[in-house]
Structure formats: structure tokens, C-alpha cells
Amino acid sequence: MEKNHTAEPWSVGTWADKVGVWGKAGDCIAVCDGCSLGDANPSNAARIVTCVNACAGINPNAVPGLVAALEQLVKEVEAIIEDGTLPPKANNHDSMIAARAALAAAKGVSC
Questions:
Q1: Cβ atoms 100, 81 nearer than 8 A
Q2: Distance CA 49, CA 28 (A)
Q3: How do residues 70-110 score in pLDDT, each as one tens digit?
Q4: Where are the alpha helices (DSSP H) in 1-111?
Q5: Residue 13: enclosing H or E segment and its boundaries?
Q6: DSSP assignments along 32-54, one per residue
Q7: What is the model's pTM?
Q8: Helices 63-82 & 94-107, crossing angle to 10 degrees?
Q9: C-alpha dist (Å) from residue 77 to 38, 57, 73
Q10: Rounded-to-integer distance, Cα 40 and Cα 35, Å
Q11: CA-CA distance, 69 to 64, in Å (whole number)?
């Protein structure tokens, strides 16, 4: 993936009375309009930083496809457990637990 943006990690910082997004070298990437320190919504900057840092090293456009593929894989494994091809204990295999946890985290729900 071609990298034409400021390298991660990014962080949330302040500039004058505004909340901004900063690169690791201290360079200002963006100042969030409407995100002054007194406003209730500086969380926009935090969300930008979280998303960018979470996608470090991967193509962010691929994330929806990754989630969909993992959902399909879990569904298909559950179906072959249900039909008896795999034993029920496969539901508790570390990889199934990790897959369900990753999907729950991606969707913002608890397992």
C-alpha cells in the first residue's frame, strides 16, 4: 500500500484553544473545527486518531471486507458444528473465541 500520509502513531493535542490531530514528529495534521477545548465534542479528534492508528500497516478500505469475511467464516463453521461435521467443542476453540471477540470489538458490542 502506497503511503502518502503522515506516519503513525497519531495523537490528539491542542493548539491555541482548539483540539487537533498531531503526527509523531509533532507536526499538525488537522485542527478540528468546532472542537474547542470548551466544546463537548473533542471526541471527533480522538476517533480520527484511533481509526488511523488501528489501520497502521493495513489498507483501511479493506476493513469492511475483512469483517464480512470473518462473519461468513464464523457462520459457516457454526453450521458445520451444528450438522455434526465438527464436534461441539469446536465452538470453544481459541480461534473461534478470538474471531467472535474480534467481530464484537469491530461492531462495538460485548461478547
A1: no
A2: 12
A3: 999 999 999 999 999 999 999 999 999 999 999 999 888 76
A4: 43-54, 63-82, 94-107
A5: strand 11-15
A6: EEEEETTSS-THHHHHHHHHHHH
A7: 0.68
A8: 140
A9: 50, 29, 6
A10: 8
A11: 9
